[in-house]
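Training component of the fellowship. As part of building independent skills, the fellow (R.M.) carried out the full modelling exercise for a liganded target. The chosen ligand was iron/sulfur cluster. The inputs are recorded below so that the supervisory panel can assess the work.
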Amino acid sequence: MNALYSLVFVFILVLIPLFGVGAGHMDFGFGVCIPYTAFALFLSGFVAKIFGWAKSPVPYRIPTTGGQQLPYDPELFKQSKLDNPSNGFQTVLRMILEIFAFRSLFRNTSTSLHETKDGPVVAYASSKWLWLFAILFHYSFFIIALRHLRLFLEPIPFFVNGLEFMDGILQIGAPVMYQTDALIVVGLLFLLLRRLVDAKIRYISLVADFFPLFLILGVALSGIWMRYYAKVDVVAIKELAMGLVTLHPHVPAGIDVSFYVHVFLVSVLMVYFPISKLMHMPGVFLSPTRNMPNDNRFHHHENPWNPDIKPLAYESYEKEFGPFMAEAGLPLDNPENAKAPEEG
Amino acid sequence: MSMPSADELFKSIDYNPPASGWMETPVNFAPGNWCYPAKKDMVAYLQGYMPDAFGNPREWSPGEADWKLPPNWKEIVMNGFRERLDKFRSLKVFMDICVRCGACADKCHFFIGSGDPKNMPVLRAELMRSIYRGEFTLAGKILSKLTGSRVMEEDVLKEWFIYFYQCTECRRCSLFCPYGIDTAEITMMARELLHLVGVNINWVLEPVSNCNRTGNHLGIQPHAFKDIVDFMVDDIEEITGVRVKAPLNEKGHEILFITPSGDVFADPGIYTFMGYLMLFHFLDLDYTMSTYASEGGNFGLFTNNEAMKKLNAKMYAEANRLGCKWILGGECGHMWRVINQYMDTMNGYLQGSHMETPRNPITGTVFHNSAVTKMVHITEFTADLIKHGKLNLDPSRNDQYKVTFHDSCNPARAMGLLDEPRYVIKNVCNNFVDMPAGTIREETFCCAGGSGLNTEEIMEIRLRGGLPRGNALRYVQDKNGVNMMSCICAIDRATLPPLADYWAPGVEVCGVHELVGNALILPGEQERTMNLRQESLPGFEDEDDDWTPPNM
Ligand code: SF4
Ligand code: SF4
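Fellow's submitted model of the complex:
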């Protein structure tokens, strides 16, 4: 049901520019006003959210330790520096692997129950599908986003050209097909299918989980459509894009409506981003279980709101139990406490 | 309540979620599904010390419809929620960035053993996140259900109670989450909120108030504590012929030794405690124990920050009073989480200036890795002694045991103490085998009784949660003949025996230093014919068989 809602939503989103530009001729609105607004909302929302997180302190250092601690004797025991970092450098390496290689996800297993003749068995199998398709999707998205820089920059930086060359190296069709265009769709379809097929995942999936998948799929498909089928006028689009970044917006005539669909969906994505789970992208950098070294036993770490709470005073303990302690031969700080209250 | 057999229980697990959405699926409040609420006087006692952290003391039962909440309970919970979002970045970030990928779903032992979808860490957190979205985010307020948000209602609070007391704060889910979202941290926050309105369980609050008053969670008073320790000294004498010393509350010693009181009180922890005493006697260690700080475990961790800090502070207070230079800590799981992740931050300023970076007086090794907390784990200490050849060991005295090791969750995933205990075990016994990969070290499975859940009234839940550990144990039992599971946690020593009896009958549970005590050759000891459990050592069984009670 949640999937259906999301799909319908995205369809409606596609229809809006189709009518707006196709029938309403609001090229300027869809080509300039909406992208500008969306970008402003994206940027301000993104920054506000990160400031909001950063405002809350990290009172305790709570890294999840995924391996052997820094031992007191490095000869005897070998520290697992990447999974249980004890200094900043190791922590940065841990984060890099987490962010660029999805290391924790790589560890994923699946659990299954089996009844065998020797009794019940709980089995764990390595399960890297999610890791594989997640990484396919994210890297494709990232490369595609970088490739788009050629529309916004003049001269085009060398790495963008290089990326484009690599991405199209298979030289399929004309215009040359980018591998990432296909891979992002494959990745998205897998993620979508997984949500629909795996009963557990379907159970926890909200509209907020399906919607971004369909939306990004819409973005990808509209992009593919305009490039390979509608064969839009790239020169005109670059003119428009350059106008936007140089703050001299103007809309050249004759751009196919599929372009406006694409831009509109991207605009929606930008607005949606900071108010949604998509913020996991910057959030992963701030996760307190991953971005701190496990060094509490040898480095002081301050809690800015450390409450003023004292232990129960020993004096009152001795007062309460003094007579028993004296009888049992336990030493007392204050000999007076040895007397039972009624005696004193 | 009758317990299903292990086979029946296993067959009843179904990973297919119910047809109704989770917000519409009612919670089961039948007895057996919840822990008893805290006794009124416990709450009242704690409230006297920490008035803002505990709600109204009262008689109530989760099985009844009316939980006797204060009239403004919703306001209290929501203000508490907001306050914690501002105090803990972890909570704020974890509320926002979960993508519900489900990588954590089948990592929780309670889900694996129950199939209840609300035991998937992601959904457990969603119970709280849905309220966060509904009450604190704009999108949630506008789009409500579409974003999976809801408003705070009594049913939600009741649901929190059930499921945040069906999480042992073991952090296994956190290891597998791509963003490190730690559902244990969310559970801790939820429990803080529940305490604010007096929704609590006795197996957490009674230990907390006992620890505060008598020094240990069992409420053993100082003279009784001494009696129990003396009793163990007698037992050691009977077994070894050597009378060891057991100093209590003595001033002027170098080291303060603190261990969980479970080791003093209950079988099989007491054998571990005997092992400590024998080791210290062997070394002629300059140490003392304390009755005032007679609890290593910190049940405050399962309650709220305030209680955790208050109980933990006793360790430094007592080291100061007795003039000890550093503290040696016994085998306890969550005690070490508190020491490693919280202690110096919370209470470091209470340390007296006489305290020093711990140094092993026998080997001269300086424990630089504990330079600020001034606390060393006993397996680090013993491993150091073994490496330097300072112990006289006869591992064959443990030959009747085929030993495996259960990594306790807290030392494993909130500290990384993995190799030290294994090193000690391998040096004090000849037969050691690890359970299968994926169930040990950082991926270890919980005993399902941590975080204050080791109580009888929820035995079925515990045994379900114990399935992953029990099944791995069964595997090495069948394959390698394992008959002893060692561990470094007193809660484990209390919760693993029923778990093993159920899922892997025939396997016993021990602490690491029980094995050390068995192997350790004390100067001047008599020929040992029995181990610390007073069971015959291999080769001495016959004497046992021939023995008849004198009066028959
Ligand atoms: S693994 Fe992390 S991101 Fe994925 S569902 Fe669990 S908590 Fe959320
Ligand atoms: S902390 Fe442990 S018990 Fe709690 S949800 Fe995570 S895996 Fe389950």
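The panel noted the following from the submitted structure. Chain A has a mean pLDDT of 93. Chain A touches chain B through 100 residues (CB under 8 Å).
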